[in-house]
Specification:
Blueprint (H helix, E strand, L loop, with lengths): L1 E4 L4 E4 L3 H5 L15 H9 L3 H11 L2
Antiparallel strand pairs: 1-2
């Protein structure tokens, strides 16, 4: 996690190999995971965190 910003606005950048593949193995790839990212972002921005998390578990592992 890499936070950046100030009091009124903060940007958090997440980038971890396990986020995309569900595995720490660098050879484990899930090329379809990216297709779900826009919907997951939309869910997070509208406060539907539980639904976003379920979608992450279903499609990013």
């Amino acid at each position: 996690m890499m936070p950046d910003g100030g009091i009124d606005k903060e940007l958090i950048v997440l980038n971890d190999i396990t986020m995309w593949s569900g595995s720490e193995d660098p050879e484990a790839l899930n090329p379809e995971a990216l297709n779900y990212l826009p919907r997951i972002r939309e869910l997070l921005l509208t406060g539907k965190n539980g639904e976003a998390q379920r979608m992450m578990y279903d499609h990013f592992q």
